[in-house]
Design brief:
Blueprint: H1 4-13, E1 17-22, E2 27-35, E3 41-50, H2 54-63, E4 87-96, E5 101-106
Antiparallel strand pairs: 1-2, 1-5, 2-3, 3-4
Length: 109
C-alpha cells in the first residue's frame, strides 16, 4: 500500500546528504539515492566514520598533559580531557542494510 506523503518525503530527500548511524557504532555520510521496502539505503560519495578503538583512546590519554596543579589545597582535581579522532575512509557507493540502521540524520547545507 502506497502512502503519497511518505513517497513525497522520500523524493524530497533524493540527492541530499544523509548521516546513517548503524548498530555497530559506525556512521555513513553520503548522498541519498535509493531505498526499498526493507529500508535498505543506497548512498553515493560516502565516507565511513568509526569511533576510536580502546587502544587509541588509551594512547591519547597517555600522551595528554595534565594541567599544572593549582595553588589551592583542593584534594580533587578536575577530570582530564582526552581527544581521540574518529577514523574515516572514502567508500563511494554503498548499500546500508536497513536492519542495522539505528538513526538517520539529514545534513544541512
Amino acid at each position: 500500500m502506497e502512502n503519497p506523503q511518505a513517497i513525497q518525503y522520500l523524493q524530497s530527500l533524493l540527492n541530499k546528504q544523509l548521516c546513517l548511524h548503524t548498530s555497530d557504532t559506525r556512521m555513513f555520510v553520503g548522498e541519498f539515492k535509493c531505498t526499498d521496502n526493507e529500508c535498505n539505503i543506497i548512498l553515493t560519495r560516502t565516507h565511513e566514520y568509526r569511533p576510536p578503538s580502546l587502544a587509541a583512546i588509551n594512547a591519547a590519554a597517555a600522551g595528554s598533559v595534565d594541567p599544572p596543579p593549582s595553588s589551592s589545597s583542593s584534594s580533587t582535581s578536575p577530570p582530564k580531557t582526552v581527544k581521540a579522532e574518529m577514523t574515516s575512509r572514502f567508500l563511494g557507493l554503498v548499500v546500508v542494510p536497513g536492519q542495522y540502521i539505528t538513526k538517520i540524520e539529514v545534513e544541512d547545507g
